[in-house]
Structures are given as structure tokens and as C-alpha cells.
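Recall the central idea of this unit: under ordinary conditions, the amino acid sequence of a chain determines the structure it adopts. In this exercise we apply that idea directly, starting from the sequence alone.
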Amino acid sequence: MSGRRLSRYSITTRLALLFALALAALSLGAGGYLYHALTVDLTQRDDNELHGKTALAVEELSRIDSLAPSDTRDSALAHMVVGHDRLTLYVAGADGRVWFATRTPRVPAGARTALLESAQARRLANDGHSVRAFGRWAHLRTGEAVAVFVESDTTETDRLLARHLREILLAVLLSALLGLGAAYGIARSGLRPLRSMADTAKQISAEQLGERLSVEDPPVELRELASAFNAMLDRLQESFTRLNEFSSDLAHEMRTPLSNLIGQTQVMLSRGRSADEYRAALESNMEEFERLSRMVGDMLFLARADNPQTRVSRRPVDLRAVALKMQQFYEPILADRNVSLAVSGDGRIEADPLMIERAVSNLVSNAVRHAEPGSEITIRIEDRPLATTLQVSNRGQPIPAQVRDRLFSRFAHADTDGREGEGVGLGLAIVQSIMKLHSGAVTVNGSGEGETRFLLSFPSAAANLPART
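Accordingly, the structure predicted from this sequence is:
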């Protein structure tokens, strides 16, 4: 049975069939060994008897002067095979003429010469009978050479062996059938924990993601499978929870600008308006459209970043140059907020320049939004042995611990000073996704003096890591 055909059956059936085949092979091997041993034993017994009777006949003939009937009729030769119905003893002269025989010989005259030359017992067949014969030269007391032959009719022995062979084959067949039944029951019982795991897995759905496979009851061989399956369910549940939260947050975040657009439009359509009023309404709507556009763009970026097929194009990036670029870009906003930005340190990494600029820009934008008026935002770059880091620090209201735990989640806000609506809560989530793409990490911590520090850490071996695929 080929492997492809065998794969169509259940594991229980396959195990039962393989066990039955193995048992049949073992039984056949044991039966074949016993059959061979019996055959050898019976053949050895016949050969010993043939050699023994031949030796006695040779000794008896050495006391006879001639093969005349008066010398052979009452000789002891006739008494040598008394009680041995299967044996035939006969003596032939050098010319091949049979002078004495206890029974009609079955070995043809032409085969007797070969018996004398072989000096070993040989198996022959004649007239539906199988015989084993042995021949040897003898010498009379006068020195005359004669041939002594002893035959053993092995027809009954052959029938006995054939009957034993049939019984062995029948025993092999019965053992295979019994083994098949026993193996099927044993395999079905042994695979019961697997069926129990399958029943538990069938109950798992989007509404029941909390179900888990037991790792205590299954056999040792299935515990690793159960643990891996449970770990997969944990990841699925976590992803499903995040997806639900994301959908809920997305609906909540989009509801505000859409409500503003709908309300503003309804008010403008309630009666006739002047051109200036329509223009002011369109400018207000434009702000909401831009907010929605930024939200959609950020969501698309996060979707691409979370895609395992996303590739990162790595090139040398000068972090100090990136920080100075951000300092120049945010100069008008810094002046408006009465906040300054200082850059110190130097460092180079292998990364996607546009992604790194976006990550640093998001951190600086966040720092500007929450910095106290008159304070200073610092960007500190350090090239350490194990990692290159970029830290953005600002002084302002401290971030509560309960907010800090989910600060990098999507649509999370840390507006502790009451300024809401300036962002959609995706900036820090984008920073975290960018760092994961570069095998790095982003962390946040604060001090008792109200200083908040965001740290980007790029491993030194990042340049040697393959791009994420």
C-alpha cells in the first residue's frame, strides 16, 4: 500500500493496518523459522538413518563370500529394515544388476551412479513418490565390489511439512486479523485525548476565545501541541481584542469630525448665507477634512507596517542631521509656544531615512504639544556600545501611570493639560511600529519634576539584520 493511498485513511486505521502488517511479518518470520527448523530436523533424521543402515549393510556384506541366493536369502540384510516400512535396502553388482532388495527400488538405475559419486544423501522423485537415497561401495570377503543403496520414502514427511506450512500461514492470517482488531481498539483508545482536544477546539469561536486546551490531562507527546495551540489562541485573542478596541476607537475618533461636518453643513443649509459665511464654513470643513485625511494616512501606514511582507530599505542615517532638520522645521511652532529646542550628541544607524524622520517628528510634535511655555525641549543622541539612542525630553504635566501603560496604543491620548483635538492618537503608535520594523524599541519614562523622556533605541547590529519580509 503506497503512502498516498494510506494517507486517505484516519490515523487510527493507519496505525491498526501498520500494526497488523508488522504482526503478520513477525508471525510469518517466526513460522518460517520453525518450518525451516522442522524441515532440517526431519531431513537430518532421515540422513542419519540412511547412513546408519548403509554402514551396517557394508559391514554385513564384508562377511559374505558371494551374492548367490544361498548366501543372501537368509542373511542379516533382510532383518536390517524390519520395522522400518519407509526404508528399502538393495545391493547391486558392479554391472548394475540388483542381487538383493527388500522392496522394489524407486531410484532409477541411471541415478544410482550419481548417488555413489556424491557420497551424500540426495532427494529424488519417481512415480509420484519422493524418496531420499544414499549409496556406498562395499566389498565382499572375497574382495568383490558391490553397491549398497538405502532409500527412505519421504512422501508422508512431505505431506506433514505441507500441512504444517498451511497451519503456519493460517496462524499468520489469524494473527493479522486479531492484531488488526486489537490495534484498532488500542489506537482508538490512545487517540482519545486527541479527539478530546478536537472537541474543545470546535467550541472555540470569536465569542469564546477564552477556551483553552488542557495541558495536564493529555499524554506527554500532546502537551507540546496543546501548549503551542494555547499560545496561538492567546495571540489570536490579543489580536482580536486589539482589533475590537481599534474599531471602537476608530468609530469614536471619526465620529467627532464627521459630526462637525454634518452639523456645520446643516446649519449653513438651514437658510441663505453670504459668501463670507459660506467661505468660513468651507474653511472650517477643510480643517475637519484634513484631520480625516491625516487619520486615514496614519491608519494606512500602520497597516503597511504591520504587514509581514513590508520591506525596510536600509541606508546610512545621520541622527544629528535628522534632529537639526526637525529643529528647523518646528521653529515657527516653537516660537509660537514660547518653547526652545536643543540638540546634542551624534550617532549613525542603518535605517529607512523617511521612517526615522517621521518617528522623530512625531516625538518632537508630541513634546511641543505638552511642553510648558518657557521650557526647553532636548534631543540627546548617544552612540553606545550595544545601541544607538535618541532621546526627546520635555518638561510639562506628568503622564499618569494608567495612561502610560497604553500610551503606544492606537488612538491613545495623553492630553493631561486639557488640550484635546490636536491629534488623532496615532503618532506614538506609528513610532512604535517604525521601531519594530528596525528591530529597535521605544520607551517612555518620567521624573518627579514633570520631565517626560521618550527614548528610541537602535541595536548596534541593526545594520547586519536582514530586512523584515
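Residues 416-423, 462-469 have pLDDT under 50 and may be disordered.
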